[in-house]
Design a protein that fits this description.
The chain is mainly alpha-helical. Helix content is 58%, strand content 4%. The chain has three helices and two strands, in the order H-H-E-E-H. A two-stranded antiparallel ribbon has the order 1-2.
């Protein structure tokens, strides 16, 4: 009978020991995952800082310059898509509060600001090449002026 109690006791101790070990492994894996996520956030912040302060990037580093140019192209694409989205939805953005306002409105219903026609006209303009500033043809994959890939 004593052997059976000892076996159950050892089994229970092993189970508790394994549970503690698994809890520690889980805790460490979570800590590593959190640190890796923070590192990705820091890389993103550093990258954004370098893009915003592109004068810090060495001009002779073609790889960095290519990345900066690609960032500019992606930003231009995002802005073009946002402008198209506003056009499809038939709204403009209020320069005062940022609310969406019907294109037929002369004043913002949220803040009362007068809708700036120049802002609305800029939103309706054709997209431009991020490399040379030339107006782009709708659906173009390359700039017709400088040949930059879009």
């Amino acid at each position: 009978m004593a052997g059976w109690k000892e076996s159950v006791g050892r089994f229970a101790q092993n189970a508790v020991s394994k549970s503690k070990e698994m809890a520690e492994i889980t805790r460490l894996n979570m800590e590593i995952s959190n640190q890796e996520q923070r590192l990705r956030e820091l890389y993103g912040q550093l990258g954004q800082y370098l893009v915003e302060n592109s004068d810090l990037v060495l001009a002779d580093r073609q790889d960095a310059q290519a990345l900066l140019q690609e960032v500019a192209q992606v930003k231009a694409g995002i802005e073009a898509s946002k402008a198209t989205l506003l056009e499809v939805r038939n709204v403009n953005i209020c320069p005062g509060c940022g609310a969406e306002v019907s294109r037929s409105s002369k004043f913002c219903p949220s803040c009362g600001a007068q809708m700036d026609r120049s802002v609305m006209e800029r939103l309706n303009q054709a997209p431009v090449c991020p490399s040379c500033g030339a107006e782009l043809e709708p659906g173009a994959a390359f700039c017709g002026n400088c040949g930059a890939k879009l």
